[in-house]
Specification:
Layout: H1 18-45, E1 48-54, E2 58-65, H2 70-93, E3 100-111, E4 114-124, E5 131-140, E6 145-147, H3 149-152, H4 158-175, H5 182-191, E7 197-199, E8 203-208, E9 221-226, H6 227-230, E10 265-272, H7 278-289, E11 295-298, H8 300-305, H9 307-315, E12 319-322, H10 335-353, E13 359-360, H11 369-375, E14 378-380, E15 384-385, H12 388-391, H13 394-404, E16 409-414, H14 418-432, E17 436-438, H15 441-448, E18 457-458
Parallel strand pairs: 2-3, 10-11, 10-16, 10-17, 11-12, 13-14, 14-18, 15-16
Antiparallel strand pairs: 1-2, 3-4, 4-5, 5-6, 7-8, 8-9
Helix pairs in contact: 4-5, 7-14, 13-14
This protein binds zinc ion (ZN).
Residues 272-273, 323, 327, 363 line the site of zinc ion (ZN).
Length: 464
């Protein structure tokens, strides 16, 4: 059975007391203040300035950051405003149909307490090109200090920074298959203000904006100088962790007692253009039988081919110097290529024997002060050239040596010809009877008490 219930609700008329009215009014008032407060707070906390104006005659698009760091924000604002004013002056003078443009953009990065702001301003006021202004701001949060490149570098390292920048800019070109003009890059990197720098995990990053100083390139070039290199010019607090060096082999080289050779006449036999395969192996065996030690000036590209020969030579007490990577005439190379020819070869040898070479024999003996400075090695030439490559005759090779050898001589052979090897061993057998001992360059220096200087070339170590 259905029943209808009628519910009666009692309404009670709300009666506000005077006090309640005041309270409600007060709350309403607070709410309004609150809204203003939030708006104000928001304004204070915004971290970007945007401005967009689009007119028939001109467009303005501005976007730059607010960092809430007073002197930094002021500097950025000043830069943007000054350029904006200049732009507007051009707009007023304008008497063509083109639409002028003023564009401000930025990039913000932060690494290890340093905030970096890169502002770039493009403006178009007629003609064929935009003008572009790039400016970097760097702020050390911990020190509350605006940084320039001078604040992060050790004293007197600007030149070194230019040299490193040149190298890595050329590397950038080579990596990205962009043909860069060597002289222009050199000039560009030497005249840079270096106002766009930052740090990252790998090293010191530098941006070279287009069309600055010299028109060396029409795109931006961005390089990172790894900490391995950059640490030597950075103040200690800005130095970074160098990459874990790859594990180098720990090879022992067979050292011998040099006292036994003190009263002997010493010659340093040196072998270029190798390592050869079978020929060098044959030589190593012959030298071992005769207790003779020599110096190899290895080519990088051949050492890559025969690492085990290099290893064996080193372990048996011979010395490994370099003859560059690919036997080019160093006089014809750019600095970038020179550094490659020399450093790459040193890297290769170091990876094979665990020790970085210190001796270089430049191909054809072509070297000068500039090459020596770049290579940072000791230059060993020769005073007896057996011309073994020309005659390929073991008797002729041996005779050249026997005819001219004196105490302190450096004798040149090439270990890629069997006739050269046989000639050298023949010469050793003959000279041994005349009181000669056969030593590496370093052994010779040690016995004779000579210290090499990097700006010199050594042809022999004769006492007179
Ligand atoms: Zn050579």
């Amino acid at each position: 059975m259905d029943q209808l219930y009628k519910r009666t609700i009692k309404y009670r008329r709300l009666k506000f007391s005077k006090l309640t009215k005041y309270i409600l009014f007060g709350l309403f008032f607070l709410a309004i203040i609150g809204v203003f407060f939030i708006l104000f707070f928001k304004e204070k906390n915004r971290d970007e300035i945007h401005e967009i104006i689009e007119k028939k005659d001109y467009n303005i698009k501005i976007n730059y950051p607010i960092l809430h760091i007073k002197n930094l924000d002021q500097e950025i604002e000043k830069l943007v405003k000054e350029n904006r004013n200049n732009f507007m002056k051009e707009v007023k003078k304008k008497n063509n149909n083109e639409t002028y443009e003023y564009l401000v953009q930025y990039e913000k990065t932060e690494y290890k307490n340093i905030k970096n702001i890169h502002i770039y301003i493009q403006s178009f006021t007629g003609g064929a090109h935009y003008t572009r202004i790039d400016k970097g701001y760097h702020y050390n949060v911990e020190k509350e200090q605006l940084l320039t490149i001078d604040n992060i570098l050790k004293d007197n390292t600007k030149t070194k920074l230019s040299e490193l920048s040149y190298y890595y800019a050329m590397q950038y070109g080579s990596d990205n298959k962009i043909e860069l003009n060597d002289a222009a890059v050199k000039e560009g990197t030497s005249k840079q203000e270096y106002n766009l720098f930052s740090f990252n995990q790998e090293g010191l990053e530098i941006i070279f904006p287009p069309y600055q100083q010299t028109s060396w390139f029409d795109h931006e070039i961005k390089i990172t100088i790894p900490y391995e290199k950059a640490n030597s010019i950075l103040k200690e607090e800005y130095q970074g962790k160098t990459k874990q060096k790859e594990e180098l082999p720990k090879l022992e080289t067979d050292k011998r007692d040099l006292n036994q050779y003190k009263d002997k006449k010493l010659v340093a036999l040196t072998f270029d253009d190798g390592p050869g395969g079978k020929t060098t192996e044959y030589l190593l065996n012959g030298l071992k039988e005769r207790d003779a030690r020599v110096t190899f000036f290895a080519l990088g590209n051949r050492a890559e081919q025969f690492p085990n020969i290099i290893k064996k030579a080193y372990q048996e007490g011979h010395e490994i110097g370099i003859h560059t990577y690919s036997h080019k005439n160093l006089f014809l190379l750019t600095d970038f290529q020179l550094i490659h020819e020399i450093n790459d070869t040193n890297d290769i040898i170091e990876r094979i024997i665990g020790k970085r070479p210190t001796l270089i024999r430049p191909p054809y003996g072509n070297t000068n002060n500039h090459i020596k400075e770049l290579g940072n090695m000791n230059t060993i030439l020769w005073d007896i050239d057996t011309e073994d490559w020309r005659y390929k005759d073991k008797h002729k090779v041996a005779n050249e040596v026997l005819k001219y050898a004196q105490d302190g001589d450096i004798i040149l052979f090439h270990d890629i010809y069997q006739s050269s090897i046989e000639g050298a061993l023949l010469a050793i057998d003959n000279l041994k009877d005349k009181g000669y001992a056969f030593v590496t360059i370093s052994e010779m220096l040690e016995i004779k008490g000579i210290t090499l200087e990097q700006n010199k070339s050594y042809f022999h170590f004769r006492s007179v």
